[in-house]
Please model this.
Amino acid sequence: MTKLLTIAFLFISVISFSQSLVSGRVIDIESRKPLAYAKLEVEGRQILANIDGSFELMLTREMVNVKISYIGYKPVSIQVNNDTKYIQAGLKPIYQQLETVNLQNDSNPANRIIKKAIESKSVNDPEQALECFSYKSYSKFIIDNEKSRIQLNADSTSSSIKTILNEGRGYLSEKVAEHIHSSSKKHIEKIEGIRTAGFKDPVYNVLTMEVNPFSLYQDTYQLYKTDYAGPLGQKAFPNYEYKIIDTTSGNRPAYVIHFKPKREHIVAGLEGLLYLDTLSYSVQKAKAQLLGSVRLIVEHDYKFYPEENIWFPKSQTTTIKPGAGGKEVAVFGGTIGLATVQQKQGIMGMILGAEKIERDLYLTSEVVHYNINLDHQASKPLRNPEILVQPEALIRSHEFWQENRKLSFTRRDEATEEKVEHLIEQGNIERKIRVKNAMATGYYPLKYWDIDLSKFFKYNIYEGLRLGTGGKTNEDLSTKFNLHGYVTYGFKDEAWKYGAGTQIYLNKENHTSLNLDFSKDLNEVASFDYLKGSNPFSILEPRFVNTNNYYKLRSYSVGLEHKITPSLDAQIQMTREEIGIISDYLFNLPGFTREDYDLAIAKFSVIWQPFSRYLRTPEGDMTLERKFPQFTGQVDKAFEELGGELNFTRLGLKAEHEIKRLDQSRTEFILEGNYGFGDLPLSHAFHANPNNPNKEKILYRFSVAGRNSFETMYFNEFYSDRQLIFHVRHQLTPFRISKNIRPELVFLSRHAVGDYQDAREFENLEFKTLERGYHEAGLELNKLIGGLGLSTAYRYGAYHLPTFKENFSFKFTFQLEL
Model:
């Protein structure tokens, strides 16, 4: 027994020693700055330090020699024994030339290599060089606990991932997918299997995030909902500085290039290493890091295919762990830092209450590519959607996962899965995700009824305070239809308004539904509402506060909605409208001089988003990412059959485009044209979205500015039966005053031109037309305090008025973030 104990003691001692851990840091001995990715050679192995010069060594002998080197510095050797716990190695700068690099007359040979790599992307980037290829992927995504705390700002990403991070304390998913990339640069992902621990239904918008970007060659490198400048993008040199730190040996040697952001306060960038093939300048391997409040590490590995002479992505691992402090790290479209999540007090916070969020989290996402076919023959052209979840993906067997797992599913993974299932059930996480997703569209879900948040409170000059309630039934009541309705009361006009209807789901996959609606309400004179492409939910509608020209409307409608393709959505509607004019004017046509009239109108509306990304699930299509440009069109035809008293046609076409930049600036364009002809009454003509109250003094007109309205154009000043409107908004990079105060300066330019051919037909009503062109320019300084900001605008040109105060507007801006 004594012998056994002695042997066991010696064995444990050896094991303990073999696991001796030494940490340290490599610095410039003169400047004391860290040397990123310094090379350490120990016991026949080579490792690289992190971007802050830190490293960890696991020793297997009592005494070892550690050689530390860095290009341009004199190498040092250090003896390390089992008592050593920490090393700080200072290297002295010297001039050194790489034997494998021809310096020529270039002041920085790394720039020449990077330039070659960028020029060679057409033959090195698989997405550009290959006609068509396919591969399968296995990915595993884990959120688990660490001892240190990670902070995720509330504005960072979708409600689902926020809820999982803030509430779930854990998340585990697996995905198996087939990928096909065509010569038209179309990429299709067919998801064959999904496992999401603890959730009855998969959280699709988490599973389809760009957590493992395929290519390093793109101008933009998207990781966890954040866009970083690509180290091999077309604007690489303005965004990065490069340095050669080593070369590798072997059949295909590589230059090891260190890249580091130049403008990280303006453009989000990564710091890391590119291993570039010395013959083709293609990427063999890459490692990128962000170290600060958290540690983000991304590693790419490629495999060489000699027949095609191309390096193809083989695997990638992304890890986010607690860091040592310092700068915030951009992830999930926002920032991550130390301490607890600071939840913004928005409408959700007011309704749901404050959430106690203290989490010790780390995130790991791994993907492996296999069954790679670089000469895939597509049987037919690839079409939308880009991501397709196959029906059987949700019910895959244990054998399927055993066959397709390309990464080990460890005991710790199993323990995480068990813990996540318990926490999600205990914390009612699925309910919280449902609430936040519903509220993003303007509803608060109850058991069978979703409350319409937009019906609670409104205010305008005609109705005064307008209070009410409304909502719709949800899938807990029926998956085949919904019933919806509302009732409100205006305290100034002392009138009830109400509506009711139903939506019958004919085909959920294609969003096909039959709609039946009735309402008795008010509508703004000369407004044009698109059936498709408008978001009806708004807590605050700035223009309607000051709107004073309405007509009474009782309407009965039947319509059909259908997604022709994932990017093309259409709706047709037949409506009977009973119009009651409130204002003191008459529509004067031969044989027709009345304040009230009935209309029978057929409407057809489409929205086309050709560049947006879509996900098709067994429950129907989802928009993953809205991209621009997008186009909206509508035709309204009023006819005298079915009880209609007027015959006219209205056309509307709107094009919207947005340019986002890596420095967080953006430019938005809206071009809209409206045209009406026939017996067009003023109620169905067009205004240009005026938003200036008819008051004399500037401060009396102080209100909330709209997003796409003319702030210096007075209500009821202009009407048209044909018009063209152009808006430009250019937002500069946000100013960083403090961590929570980052105001945005926006330059505005708005223009409108139009006419009204038969304006003489209106008695007791005077208005201008826009035939000489209307122009205004303005500024906004948004998000000064929370969502509040300030706006100014000035009208100029043909409709310039005599005094400064008549042409100038000064207002609040308010941007509510749910």
In short: Residues 4-17, 96-105, 147-169, 329-359 have pLDDT under 50 and may be disordered.
